[in-house]
Design brief:
31% helix; five-stranded antiparallel sheet; Alkaline Phosphatase, subunit A; 14 helices; 473 residues; 2 domains
Length: 473
C-alpha cells in the first residue's frame, strides 16, 4: 500500500503481483481453503514469510534495484515468527518448524538475489536482526524449577481499584485504574482522580503502594494439582506433560520500599532435592580414568520421592511511577539505564510494574509475550553478510542500532545524525583489503522468479578485484 503523497496508484508490478497466484499459493501452503481472513489464518505460518518474500522479489525486479548509480536499500519485516511465537512459545515444536522453514525461505531468496542482482551476492550486503526477544512459556519455565507464572491482569486491576476506593471513596465503585491493561504499564484514570482533588503524585504513589498486596492476592490456591509442560518437547509431536502436586507459597511480609522504586518479594529459589546414594555396606564407587572399568555400587537405596512442587506465585520485582521515571529516580545500574531509555512522557498518568523474571500477563491457557527488562526479552540475533565482512562469530555485546552505523561506514557515508550505534569494526575487513563497488551500467529488466527474503541491502556492482563475500554474526 502507499498514499497519494507518493503516487496516485500502485506501480504495475505491484498490481500484477496482487492479481497473480501468490496469495492462493500461500493459502494452499498453509492448508487454508478460504481467503476470507487471510492475515489471521496464513499469518502465523511460514507460508506468510514465503508470500512476503515473493513480493520482495517482485519489488526488486520491478524497481530494478541494484542497477542504479546510488545504493538501493530494501528492508523487510517478517512477522509470522512473532505471531506464532506468542501463541505457542519459543520452545514449541511449531516454532521449531517455523525456524527451519524460514531458513529454507531465506536460502532460496539469497540464491534468487545471486542471479537477479547485477554482480550477484558479491554486490549485496545483508543484515539480519530482530526487534525483541521473548520469554519461555510459564509452563516450560516452571518445569525447569523457575518461577514461571501467569498474572491475571483483570484481577490485578480490580484489586487496585478496590484499594483506591477504600482510600479515596469508601463505599463507592469508582474506576481509578483503567481496564484492559498491558504490563508493565498500568494506566490511571486521570479525570477520576482529578475530580476527587487528587494530583498525579498522590495518585501514582497510592497505586504503587497498593501493588505489592495486590500481587500477593494472585497466589494460586492451595493443594490443586498442576500439569506443567516438559521443557524442549520433541519437534513434530505434542508436548508431554508431567503432573506435580502443588502447595501454595507462603506470603511473607514484603520488604520496605526503596527510595526510587518499590521492591517486591524475592523469587523463591528452585527446590534443591536430596538423594541417598548408597548404604554403608555397599559404598558408591566412582568411575576411574578413561579405559579403567567402573565398578557398580550394590544394594543402592532408591532415591527419595520428589517433594511437592511449590506453585510459582506472581511476584512484583520493581515498580516506578511516571513522575519517578521523569525525574530520573531510577537505580544507578544497567536496569536503571534500561528503564530510563524506556521512559516516555506520553500515555498520561501511569505506574510501571515489573513482575519477576519468567512471569507475564495471561490467563494461564498458554502462550507467551515480551516487554520485560530481562535478558531473554533483549537477546536478539545480529548477523551481516557481504564482501566487507570478516567471517566469524563475535562474542562482544552488540545492539540492533549498530546496523545503521555499520552500514553507513561500509557505504562510506556519514552516520545518521541521531545514530547512537557503533561501527562494528571487529567484523569489518581493513579498507586496504576491500575494494568499494563501482557504479554499474544500466542492467536489463529481470523477470521475477522464485520466492523468499530477509532484510537485504543491494549495493552497486563491485569491482572485479573485490574479495569474495563473507559473513559475520
Amino acid at each position: 500500500m502507499t498514499s497519494t503523497y507518493y503516487m496516485q496508484q500502485l506501480p504495475e508490478w505491484a498490481a500484477a503481483f496482487d492479481d497473480g497466484p501468490d496469495i492462493q499459493l500461500a493459502a494452499g501452503a498453509a492448508n487454508v481453503t478460504s481467503l476470507t481472513n487471510f492475515y489471521s489464518q496464513v499469518g502465523a505460518t511460514n507460508a506468510a514469510n514465503t508470500y512476503e518474500v515473493s513480493f520482495a522479489e517482485a519489488l526488486i525486479a520491478g524497481e530494478q534495484l541494484g542497477t542504479h548509480p546510488a545504493t538501493d536499500m530494501l528492508t523487510l519485516s517478517l512477522s509470522p515468527n512473532d505471531i506464532e511465537g506468542h501463541h505457542f512459545g519459543p520452545d514449541s515444536p511449531e516454532e521449531h518448524s517455523m525456524v527451519l522453514g524460514l531458513d529454507a525461505t531465506l536460502d532460496l531468496f539469497f540464491s534468487w538475489l545471486d542471479t537477479h542482482v547485477p554482480g550477484g551476492l558479491a554486490n549485496v550486503v545483508i543484515a539480519l536482526s530482530a526487534d525483541h526477544g521473548i520469554a519461555p512459556t510459564p509452563a516450560v519455565s516452571s518445569a525447569l524449577g523457575l518461577p514461571g507464572a501467569y498474572i491475571n491482569t483483570d484481577r490485578l486491576v480490580a484489586d487496585l481499584n478496590q484499594a483506591m476506593n477504600a482510600k479515596f471513596s469508601p463505599g463507592e465503585n469508582v474506576v481509578y485504574v483503567l481496564p484492559h491493561q498491558e504490563l508493565p504499564y498500568l494506566s490511571l484514570n486521570r479525570p477520576t482522580f482529578e475530580r476527587a482533588g487528587i494530583n498525579e503524585q498522590e495518585a501514582e504513589d497510592a497505586v504503587q503502594v497498593a501493588l505489592e498486596p495486590a500481587f500477593r492476592t494472585l497466589a494460586p490456591p492451595t493443594g490443586e494439582p498442576r500439569t506443567v509442560q516438559t521443557p524442549n518437547p520433541a519437534p513434530g509431536g505434542p508436548a508431554p506433560a508431567i503432573a506435580a502436586p502443588v502447595v501454595a507459597a507462603s506470603t511473607a511480609k514484603a520488604p520496605p520500599a526503596e527510595k526510587t522504586g518499590r521492591t517486591g518479594a524475592a523469587p523463591a529459589a528452585p527446590y534443591a532435592g536430596t538423594m541417598r546414594t548408597a548404604t554403608s555396606a555397599a559404598p558408591l564407587i566412582a568411575t576411574g580414568p578413561a579405559g579403567v572399568p567402573a565398578k557398580t555400587a550394590l544394594n543402592m537405596t532408591p532415591p527419595d520421592p520428589a517433594p511437592p512442587r511449590v506453585a510459582p506465585s506472581p511476584q512484583l520485582f520493581r515498580s516506578f511511577t511516571r513522575l519517578q521515571m521523569a525525574a530520573g529516580q531510577v537505580p544507578p545500574t544497567e536496569f536503571g539505564q534500561l528503564l530510563a531509555h524506556s521512559y516516555s512522557p506520553n500515555g498520561g498518568w501511569y505506574v510501571a510494574a515489573f513482575p519477576v523474571a519468567f512471569q507475564m500477563e495471561g490467563s494461564g491457557s498458554g502462550g507467551t509475550t515480551h516487554f520485560s527488562p530481562f535478558s531473554y526479552d533483549r537477546h536478539v540475533p545480529l548477523g551481516f553478510f557481504g564482501a566487507p565482512f570478516v567471517p566469524g562469530t563475535y562474542l562482544g555485546r552488540v545492539e540492533p542500532v549498530d546496523i545503521a552505523s555499520t552500514l553507513a561506514s561500509v557505504l562510506g557515508v556519514n552516520q545518521p545524525s541521531a545514530a547512537v550505534g557503533h561501527v562494528l569494526t571487529q567484523a569489518l575487513k581493513p579498507a586496504a583489503e576491500f575494494a568499494y563497488p563501482k557504479e554499474p551500467a544500466a542492467a536489463p529488466h529481470h523477470a521475477r522468479r522464485g520466492r523468499r527474503a530477509g532484510a537485504a541491502v543491494a549495493v552497486p556492482e563491485s569491482s572485479p578485484e573485490a574479495p569474495p563475500a563473507g559473513g559475520a554474526k
